[in-house]
Amino acid sequence: MNLPFWVRRAHKWIGLVIGVQALLWMVSGLYMTAISLEVIHGDHLAHVFDGPLDQVSERLDIEQLAKIRPGFESMKLKKFLGKEVYELRAGGKATLVDARTGNVLSPLAREQIVARAKDIYQGEAEIREVTWITQAPQEVAKRPVPMWAVRFDDRSNTTLYFSPDTGDLLARRHDLWRWFDFLWMFHIMDYDTRDDVNNNLLRVAAGTGLVFALSGAWLVFYSFRRRAQP
């Protein structure tokens, strides 16, 4: 059996099969290391800071809140658009209530979401589009719907996604993030959900790449050993 011949042939064909994926691994890996995660996360585009709560303020007590939202399971006092509000949760559903008047604010109207987006957006661009979303696009596939999408007319095509119940910023998306997500799909070879790093296709490709590397190392060792022989 001519072992070097078969190792060379296997190495060549494995290289043809795995070469494209290896190139995608390197290109995607280079992109991921060249751009910091802080930029990818978009913290520079939208920053949430509602300020401290008022030290002295007349607020509704628990008994009064129970009349507005009977059976609520948890509560959180926070600021929203400059006013104090309670976030009441019951059965997985959140409701915003004005902490002073008791007025129910949820679901938030388009004008309130626009004001919220302008408040936390760190750029200078104007809002291009505001969309009510009932079916989440790929870039926010795991976020709960419905939600509001506010798109800004900037170079990054920034989109901010908000909860209509709490006004919380659910996600920041921009072109650098979208490229990251696109390359991540190729990097982990999950072309469906883009989050499964333990899929069988990746296992096969990684195993094949290992065989390619080991066969190449063996050929290098064999070549030097053969030259060293008199």
TrEMBL record:
The chain crosses the membrane at residues 12-32, 201-224. It holds the Pfam family PepSY_TM. The keyword Transmembrane applies. Keywords: Membrane, Transmembrane, Transmembrane helix. It comes from the Bacteria. This is Peptidase. It comes from Pelomonas aquatica.
